[in-house]
Amino acid sequence: MKSDDVELLIQQVQSSNPMDSAILDNFIQAVAQRSIDIKLVERWLKAVHSNGISVAETTQLTKGMMLSGAVIDWSDNALVVDKHSTGGVGDKMSLMLAPILAACGLKVPMLAGRGLGHTGGTIDKLEAIPGFNCSLNPLQMKTQVEAIGCCIAAQNDAIAPADGLLYAIRDVTDTIDSIPLITASIISKKAAEGLGTLVLDVKCGKAAFMQTLEDATGLAESMVGAAKGLGINTVAQITQMDYPIGQYVGNSLEVLGSVMVLQGKGSKDTLDIVILQCAELLTRTGKAESHVQAEKIISQVIDNGMALEKFKHMCIQQGVDQITAQKLCENPQDVLTQSAHITEIKAQDTGYICEIDSMMLADIARKHGAGRFSIEDEIIAEIGFEICFERGNQINSGDVWLKFHHNESLTEEDLNKLTNSLSTTAQPFVIKNRLISIIE
Ligand code: URA
Predict the structure, then answer these.
(1) Whose CB among 68, 88, 253, 377 lies 3.0–4.6 Å from 162's, allowing a Cys bridge?
(2) What is the DSSP letter of 433?
(3) What is the mean pLDDT of residues 79-91?
(4) pLDDT tens digits, 311-357
(5) Which of 68, 183, 185, 267 is an active site residue?
(6) Using CA atoms, how far apart are residues 190 and 227, in angstroms rounded to an integer?
(7) Residue 85 among the catalytic residues
């Protein structure tokens, strides 16, 4: 690719003129083929980050990135669905959503990532299961989904390879937080799955990437616009992310929490979010007439064991031996690694739980190995925490409200921070629904 052409693109972005679409397509192909000067890519990313680009350009960028690699081809994608979440503390929905939807007759070819922030990603959680293999190529993904209805695979160079290089450069040039670049990165990979329908969970709050409703809405609108522009029936749910989701946070612990939901004994908070997402996909694909009916179908496949059976089949198809998969579904604790220590943290006051500082807890868990500081860091699956009370519950001074799972000793500072993560009020209060708004 001629450097003069890239200079022209950079100039067009800087002067808020539309980028030449043929040059933009060539640029994305050159990025995917790694046949372009990195310095030019850095300057283009900085220009987009500083000036923004239009919705039409974002859609074109997304499409170009999607087409830079394999796109899974279904003869009919009406029942092919997926979900993407911008991520939060205790956000383990994919582990339940894929098998639940497969049990309801939908097809879920899910690509997911490892975590670089304070918590592990979906792939880190699945890799806490002994033998679970997330390295599937697009053909293997398609074959598995056709056989059992779902797979969860790690993002790889076969899919949207332009994103691999762009994301790595964004990371070192401080250009991650750009709505068009985030949109193109996420939606190009989802679109490469060949989806008919997509639900987006855009987290909003103190423990989310988007902390204000305005920012979350901006990202949701941009992602919905690009996905619809590529012909995918898409809706975004903006959901509250101040306090941790459910009872378990940490990679092995979130597998445990997910299996418990599929066994019909999980936390209501976790199940409610899974239902919110699954119901949207079931109604949009015509598998249910209403959210009420969708909820009934979801309850049925949990109660009759079909969702758990799908989860077991997914594990077996992805490398887990049959005995381990069976045990995982019956007594997950017998299969998942356990931490050397569990420290109980007691409430200091009596009252109603009004806040649990997710970021504080997640940061301490990350320091002990539950998350990464750099991409080379190894996750320690068994590190994390269990929250013994729900928000709004009454608690007495001296009650154990948190169990922290760790291998290394806790410092005085860790203990103080863990203790101070809980806030109570004297008055009972009404807990708001996690769903804040819907963008479609
Ligand atoms: N996840 C992605 O895959 N890309 C982004 O840009 C942000 C989150």
Answers:
(1) 68
(2) P
(3) 96
(4) 999 999 999 999 999 999 999 999 999 999 999 999 999 999 999 99
(5) 185
(6) 9
(7) yes
